[in-house]
Write a structure and sequence with these properties.
Helix content is 42%, strand content 10%. It is an alpha/beta fold. The structure holds uracil.
């Protein structure tokens, strides 16, 4: 009999037979963990086509001790948001609040980032937010070259897993790391760049904006460039994020 012709009762009988058969061979349960489901999803795919998930990457990161920052951190800040986002925001590294909560951009700079995201017509659940380094540097100092070199491969794997179309880098470290350049952020911002086929729009870091509110107009110009690239409607009136 064709599968689609089976009645509900027959289908239940078939399932029961299969379960009895499994019970006789010693099975007493199923592994329904996300890891197992991901493995099953990849069965039959050629090895190169198997896409690593964010969960795989986070599992591999584990309770990371790969660099000295681990000694002073409270929580690793892996990233948050939509794992299938079209747009990823990349910051520098966790600050005090992020380190306590394990979430990116939840302190004062994060509140400004939330407003910037709202100004382009999106909300935080629609985008993915992460950082170049996953542990807070002591006293919020700048990340060091070896710390960036150790941690940024995880960010690059995150981008491969999410496969966004657009990336907005926040501040000098994110832009320079992703674009592999030493050009200053003042020269990188205002233009579209490419990383691994993704369109990259660098802008100033929200923490820098809090200290230099006069730069908000330039960030708004960058956000308009991002909206244009993404095909998002530009506001009729030029609502600068000066109002945020
Ligand atoms: N600054 C960053 O660069 N990242 C955060 O997550 C918070 C503040």
């Amino acid at each position: 009999m064709k599968r689609e012709q089976l009645t509900v009762t027959e289908t239940i009988d078939e399932i029961q037979d299969a379960l009895r058969c499994l019970e006789r061979s010693g099975w007493d349960g199923f592994d329904c963990s996300s890891r197992c489901l991901e493995t099953i999803q990849n069965w039959g795919r050629p090895p190169g086509a198997v896409r690593e998930s964010l969960n795989d990457i986070q599992r591999d990161l584990g309770e990371c001790r790969r660099c000295g920052l681990s000694a002073g951190r409270t929580k690793i800040v892996f990233g948050a948001g939509n794992p299938e986002a079209e747009l990823v925001f990349i910051g520098e590294g966790p600050g005090y609040e992020e380190d306590r909560q394990g979430e990116p951009f939840v302190g004062p700079a994060g509140q400004l980032l939330t407003k910037i995201i709202a100004a382009i017509g999106l909300d935080r659940d629609q985008v993915y937010i992460c950082n170049i380094i996953k542990c807070r540097p002591p006293g919020n100092r700048n990340p060091e070259t070896d710390e960036i070199a150790t941690c940024s491969p995880f960010l690059k794997r995150q981008l491969k897993a999410i496969r966004p179309k657009f990336v907005c880098t926040l501040g000098k470290f994110a832009a320079q790391t992703l674009l592999d350049t030493t050009d200053p952020i003042s020269r990188l911002r205002g233009h579209r760049h490419f990383y691994d086929g993704l369109r990259v729009i660098p802008t100033y870091h929200p923490a820098y904006l809090l200290r230099n509110p006069g730069k908000k107009r330039q960030v708004w110009e960058d956000m308009k460039l991002l909206m244009k690239e993404m095909g998002l409607p530009l506001p009729a009136k030029d609502a600068s994020i000066n109002k945020t």
